[in-house]
Design a protein that fits this description.
This protein has 207 residues and is α/β, with parallel strands linked by helices. It has seven helices and seven strands; from the N terminus they run H-E-E-E-H-H-E-H-H-H-E-H-E-E. The strands form two sheets. Strands 4-3-2-5-6 form a five-stranded mixed beta sheet. Strands 1-7 form a two-stranded parallel sheet.
C-alpha cells in the first residue's frame, strides 16, 4: 500500500526584528533632522544646466533681490571674527552672548547699527519677509559702504584664522535687472576679487 505524502507548509519569516530596526532608524532621522529655516530674502535664481557645486566652507554668499543685498558666511569662526572686526571699526560693542548668537545666523541684511536688534530676535522673527532693509552699499564714502567693509573684514578674518582667501558667490533674482548685480560686482572688484560664482537653479534639457 502506497504511503501518503504529508504536505509541507511554507516557512514563515518573522519580520518583527526588521520592523523594530526600521522604526528605530525612522525615529533617529526625525529627531536629528534640522528643519530648513525660511530665508529672510527669497530669490528666484535663473536656471542653468551647469552643475558645479559650491564649496562647503570658505564661502561668502551675497544675495541680491528687491533692491537689497544680504551677506552670508559658511564658517562660524570666520563669521564671529568678522563681527568683532566690524564692531571695532564702527565702535559697536557686542557681548559674548550676542557674538555666540550671531555665529549661528547664516545670512543677514541690516546696517551695523541695527545688528543688535536682529541678533536679539528669534530665528522665525528675524527671517520674516521685508523685515531687514539690506546692507548699505551705495555710498561713495567707503565707511558708509558697509557691504565693502563686511567683505574686507571677512577676508581679513579668513586670512587670520585659516590663512586662506575667501570664495564669493552672488545669488541674484532672475527678474532682477543687471545693474543691481553689477553694483555688487563693482564692490568686489574694487577689492581685487575678480573671480566669483553665480548661483543658479538646475534646468533640464529634456522637453
Amino acid at each position: 500500500m502506497a504511503k501518503a505524502k504529508s504536505r509541507k507548509s511554507a516557512g514563515a519569516i518573522d519580520m518583527t526584528a526588521m520592523c523594530d530596526v526600521a522604526f528605530l532608524l525612522l525615529t533617529f532621522f526625525i529627531l536629528t533632522a534640522t528643519a530648513k529655516q525660511p530665508e529672510p530674502l527669497q530669490v528666484d535664481t535663473p536656471n542653468s544646466t551647469v552643475q558645479t557645486k559650491l564649496p562647503e566652507s570658505g564661502l561668502v554668499t551675497l544675495t541680491v533681490g528687491k533692491g537689497k543685498v544680504f551677506f552670508g558666511m559658511k564658517d562660524r569662526d570666520i563669521r564671529l571674527r568678522t563681527l568683532e572686526l566690524m564692531g571695532q571699526e564702527y565702535s559697536v560693542n557686542f557681548s559674548e552672548d550676542e557674538k555666540k548668537r550671531f555665529s549661528l545666523i547664516d545670512g543677514f541684511g541690516v546696517p551695523v547699527g541695527a545688528l543688535k536688534q536682529i541678533i536679539a530676535m528669534s530665528s522665525s522673527d528675524r527671517n520674516k519677509q521685508d523685515l531687514q532693509p539690506g546692507i548699505p552699499m551705495d555710498s561713495i564714502d567707503e565707511k558708509k559702504n558697509e557691504l565693502a567693509r563686511w567683505i574686507y573684514n571677512a577676508r581679513s578674518a579668513s586670512a587670520e584664522l585659516h590663512n586662506e582667501d575667501l570664495k564669493f558667490a552672488i545669488k541674484g533674482d532672475a527678474k532682477l535687472e543687471y545693474p543691481a548685480i553689477k553694483r555688487v560686482m563693482d564692490v568686489l572688484q574694487k577689492q581685487d576679487v575678480n573671480s566669483f560664482n553665480l548661483v543658479t537653479g538646475l534646468r533640464s534639457d529634456n522637453f
